[in-house]
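Replying to the earlier thread about multi-chain prediction with a worked example.

Input:
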Amino acid sequence: MRDISLHVLDIVNNSLEAEAALVEISVEEDTVNNVLRVRIKDDGRGMDRETAKKAADPFYTSRKTRKVGLGLPLLKASCERCGGYFSIKSEPGKGTEIDASFQYDNIDRPPIGDMPETVFSLVILNPSIDFVYSHSYNGQVFTMDTRELKKILKGLPLNTPEVAGWLNGYLKEGISNIMSMP
Ligand SMILES: Nc1ncnc2c1ncn2[C@@H]1O[C@H](COP(=O)(O)OP(=O)(O)O)[C@@H](O)[C@H]1O
Ligand SMILES: [Mg+2]
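Result:
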């Protein structure tokens, strides 16, 4: 069983391979309605209808290096095993949105894993890409938008050690705050 955060890393890598400039990651924990919903939206090259249909098939990949692409099929299988839904919306030249949900209390639902660490790594390793990360827990929302951070930093890169250290703490604290609010 893979953590949700590892699925997110995988799916975001598809966005990066599709030359996205902006990747939006949303995690919604709704224990009241028993839903965990994860969405990843990008403005990359997108897929035509046929490709989008085939993308969740393990034997489809546009890679030349290996014959199976498992990122999307693994996430889809996990959602479906957990009483959730999985969908791919994509438009050539516009981008792609992956929408995956799970029954929150399903016994097979993977743990969320370390989302702050995952988002931190993505931001630090891809300084030229913008990320919006939004995580909610029963309506309490934490959001990080690198476009806003870059504006405030006035050209100081996000992967400058001092800034990176701050960002790491900001993400960790932000998530733990929404969890502990009543
Ligand atoms: N965000 C995306 N934008 C454009 N194409 C995508 C995106 N995500 C997936 N695809 C297409 O779907 C295929 C399957 O994706 P995936 O299951 O992650 O396997 P892999 O990345 O190993 O090929 C990719 O090879 C690519 O052609
Ligand atoms: Mg992939």
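Residues 14-15, 18, 42, 44-47, 55, 60-63, 69-73, 96 surround adenosine-5'-diphosphate (ligand 1) (CB under 6 Å).

Feel free to reuse this layout for your own posts.
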